[in-house]
Amino acid sequence: MTQKKFNILVLDGGGSKGVYTIGVLKELEKKLGGKLYQHFDLIYGTSTGSIIASLIALGKDVSTIENLYLELIPKIMKGASKSKNLKAEADKIFEDKKFDSFKTNIGIVATNFDNQKPLIFKSNINQSHGMKHSFEPGFGCSISDAIQASCAAYPIFDVKRITTENQGAIDTIDGGFIANNATLFALIDAHKGIKIEAKDIQVLSIGVGRFIEKPISWKLQFMGRLKMVKFIEKVLSANANTNEILPKLLFPSLNLIRINETFNQPEYGTNMIETNKNKLEKLIQLGRSSFAKFEKEIDQLFLSEVYP
């Protein structure tokens, strides 16, 4: 009897550029049929990827997520109060739901601001690597709070203080500073925590695309944030590039597809705080085009589901 594969979906951080990810996922959902949470045993997300991952794991279809993002991004990214905007929108979307609401296993990556260590909100006790006796799904936090922690790209966003049930109060910043591409963390959960053999793990890792850096608005330049936004972009990119290499080195036989194409055309220039709807829609289209380039590999990864 053939062992059922353990499918993992990993979604990078990158602010507004998360719409590229949505473009890839839109085609993937149509290819596989049904909702995406039904096809993945574990979904990991960092920053903007944590929002998309959470919506998928709650059972939302990608078209709904796409429409939500096109409304959400301008509301959050315009103006100086980005953290307040994010909280208001996240609380509205996720209400007071906690991690027992998820329909599949999930990991949301944040960074502990005080000790600079990973802080990963998890849904399943089997994802724990010790102290199972005190495990609390999502540390007892709401989904909204976990997402705000994962998205707190300081100093563009404020440091987010969360109150956990098992560790007390913790100051957090964006998970991208630790693992913008969280594939390695997801693999450790699957292999070491849930006890899945490496040969039975399949990973689809989706980035936010690589684009020419669009100039930041004069308002941000005036506020002295131009260099900081550029610095954060480079940190997230370097982090994602590093974590793109490590999983294959540690798990040579791993069945992994990484989708994160480079687009050097000036007309696609953008950044993590993009708010132009036309540009956002173009990035979604680029995500769909990237899916097309990797479609044969995806067919092989999900052979039994694409061709039952």
Topology readout:
Layout: E1 6-11, H1 18-32, E2 42-46, H2 48-57, H3 62-77, H4 82-94, E3 105-112, E4 118-122, H5 143-150, E5 160-163, E6 169-174, H6 176-179, H7 183-193, E7 201-206, E8 210-211, H8 218-222, H9 226-250, E9 255-259, E10 262-263, H10 277-293, H11 295-301, H12 303-306
Parallel strand pairs: 1-2, 1-7, 2-3, 7-9, 8-10
Antiparallel strand pairs: 3-4, 3-6, 5-6
Helix pairs in contact: 1-3, 1-10, 3-4, 4-5
The tally of beta strands, per DSSP, is 10
Rg, nearest Å: 18 Å
SSE pattern, N- to C-terminal: EHEHHHEEHEEHHEEHHEEHHH
Helix-residue proportion: 40-55%
Distance between the termini: 16 Å
Report the sheet-strand fraction. 15-25%
How would you concisely characterize the structure shown here?
The chain is α/β, with parallel strands linked by helices. The protein has helices at residues 18-32, 48-57, 62-77, 82-94, 143-150, 176-179, 183-193, 218-222, 226-250, 277-293, 295-301, 303-306, and strands at 6-11, 42-46, 105-112, 118-122, 160-163, 169-174, 201-206, 210-211, 255-259, 262-263.
Protein model, in words:
- This protein has 308 residues and is an alpha/beta fold.
- The chain has 12 helices and 10 strands.
- α3 packs antiparallel against α4.
- Strands 1, 2, 3, 4, 5, 6, 7 and 9 form an 8-stranded mixed sheet that branches. A two-stranded parallel sheet has the order 8-10.
- The longest helix is centred in the C-terminal third of the chain and has 25 residues.
- The chain is 44% helix and 16% strand.
